[in-house]
Design goal:
Mean pLDDT: 94
Radius of gyration: 22 Å
GO molecular function, one term: aspartate kinase activity
Catalytic activity: L-aspartate + ATP = 4-phospho-L-aspartate + ADP
Strand order of the largest sheet: 3-6-2-1-9-11-12-10
Number of strands: 18
Bound molecules: adenosine-5'-diphosphate, aspartic acid, magnesium ion
Largest sheet: 8 strands, mixed
CATH class of the largest domain: Alpha Beta
Keywords: Amino-acid biosynthesis, ATP-binding, Diaminopimelate biosynthesis, Kinase, Lysine biosynthesis, Nucleotide-binding, Transferase
Number of domains: 2
Pfam families: AA_kinase (PF00696), ACT_7 (PF13840)
CATH superfamily of the largest domain: Acetylglutamate kinase-like
Low-confidence stretches: none
Order of helices and strands: EHEHHEEEHEEEHEEHHEEEHEEHEHEEH
InterPro entries: AceGlu_kinase-like_sf, ACT-like_dom_sf, Asp/Glu/Uridylate_kinase, Asp_kin_monofn, Asp_kinase, Aspartate_kinase_CS, CASTOR_ACT_dom
């Protein structure tokens, strides 16, 4: 019998009628002869009673609450969801057992709020599957070796699902969500974005890492490491979704790609803090070393670094603003901070070494009169830092510039 993991996101389990639809997917897999493990996210979105953001809003002094206590609170959202969904499954006569992430064997480090999985102990789940029981696992959480509850970073139920898929040698991990697959851009910004039928781990990792929250980048990393096929699909339609699996890349085996279709997707990340930092006048030439060591020691990870002899620009996530400012003050550096920034990126394995791609990015920005504040690139990405107000316009302009609304011709 094949093992399949079915993960259902927050909107899929938001209310009773949607949970009934979810139960039908489980019934369908069982009828097809599969052994099913269900992974759930907390129910709904901010404002819904037990959603992750709603729980977070309960503690007005979230910054002062120890991270370990925040994790205890947040883990409740997925536990509630698992118990409630299990009741729907029982009504369909499915034998089920609810487990916390820790009970399901997910062991993590002690980095509360963004813990990494160290190991998955699959025995408990294997025994349940052998007995014909469907485990319903609370996503987004694990436990340390000492038994303390941790969470895996926002969006981390995807990570739970793929980690369990790897440990149980699942034939597929189905990530059920509210869109019918991974699209060429966030459909909330580009309504006519196309669903990509297949992708390799590299491109989707880049898309996810640069903001596409449809799947968590760590889930993709684990999938790649253990060659777990992942399918992103809609809970509410029969569409095929997007298959992420080895050898599903958009390049042909020789690496060719029609230059007109070299870009696979556009993604964006809202709300970044940009800093312009200058060293104190008397400081020696190694000021950048001193600066970045100090930031690192205080747990600040920086992004989009543009270093010049007398100043440096970089970005940090908004939640790191306070600690960044404090560090800069402590070491006597001058700075300006801008809180209205966003970054927009193009991703495509085929852009490496392809002349004209940067020119087309610039053309799209020029035609839309969008000012570029910083940029960065890698072999398969180009990222622009922009004013937040231009983010949506830039995503739409790049989507059009790279013909992403058109079907990619087969090579
Ligand atoms: P879930 O609660 O099911 O995990 P998420 O909100 O985490 O759902 O992810 C689904 C959302 O991701 C979609 O509603 C969509 O707005 C957003 N999204 C961002 N980029 C993309 C993309 N490239 N393709 C599809 N969805 C995207
Ligand atoms: N509920 C968690 C979050 O909102 C985890 C998830 O949805 O994957 O981040
Ligand atoms: Mg998600």
């Amino acid at each position: 019998m094949a093992i399949v993991i079915q993960k259902f996101g927050g909107t899929s389990v938001r209310d009773a009628s949607r949970r009934d639809v979810v139960a039908q997917w489980v019934v369908k897999a069982i009828e097809a002869g599969d052994q099913v493990v269900v992974v759930v996210s907390a129910m709904g979105r901010r404002g819904d009673p037990y959603a992750t953001d709603t729980l977070l809003d309960l503690i007005t002094d979230a910054d002062l609450t120890p991270a370990a206590e925040r994790d205890l609170l947040l883990s409740c959202g997925e536990i509630i969801s698992a118990v409630v969904l299990a009741s729907h499954l029982r009504r369909q006569d499915i034998p089920v057992k609810v487990l916390t992430g820790g009970e399901a064997g997910i062991i993590t480090d002690g980095n509360f709020g963004d813990a990494r999985i160290l190991e998955v102990q699959p025995k408990v789940l294997q025994n349940l599957l052998q007995d014909g029981v469907v485990p319903v696992v609370a996503g987004f959480q694990g436990r340390t070796v000492e038994g303390r509850v941790t969470t895996l970073g926002r969006g981390g139920s995807d990570t739970t699902a793929v980690a369990l898929g790897a440990a149980l040698h699942a034939v597929v991990v189905d990530i059920f969500t509210d869109v019918d697959g991974i699209k060429t851009a966030d459909p909330r910004i580009v309504p006519d974005a196309r669903t990509i039928s297949q992708l390799d781990y590299d491109e989707i990792f880049q898309l996810a890492n640069l903001g596409a929250r449809v799947i968590h980048p760590r889930a993709v990393e684990i999938g790649r490491q253990f060659s777990v096929p992942i399918r992103v699909r809609s809970t509410f339609s029969e569409s095929q979704g997007t298959l992420i699996a080895p050898g599903q890349g958009t390049l042909d085996p020789w690496g060719h790609r029609d230059p007109d279709h070299a870009v696979t997707g556009i993604t964006q990340l809202d709300h970044l803090m940009q800093f312009r930092v200058t060293p104190p006048p008397a400081m020696h030439k190694d000021w950048a070393y001193h600066l970045f060591m100090s930031l690192g020691e205080n747990g600040v990870s920086v992004d989009l670094i543009n270093l010049f002899p007398d100043q440096v620009y970089f970005c940090v996530p908004p939640e790191k603003t306070q600690i960044t400012e404090q560090t800069l003050k402590d070491i006597g550096f001058g700075y300006e901070a801008y809180d209205d920034r966003a970054k927009v990126s193009i991703v495509g394995s085929a852009i490496q070494g392809l002349p004209g791609v940067v020119g087309r990015v610039m053309a799209a920005m020029a035609q839309s009169q969008i000012e570029i504040l910083q940029s960065a690139d890698s072999h398969s990405t180009i990222t622009l830092l922009l004013h937040r107000r231009n983010m949506e316009k830039a995503v739409a302009a790049l989507h059009k510039q790279f013909h992403l609304d058109e079907e990619v011709p087969k090579t």
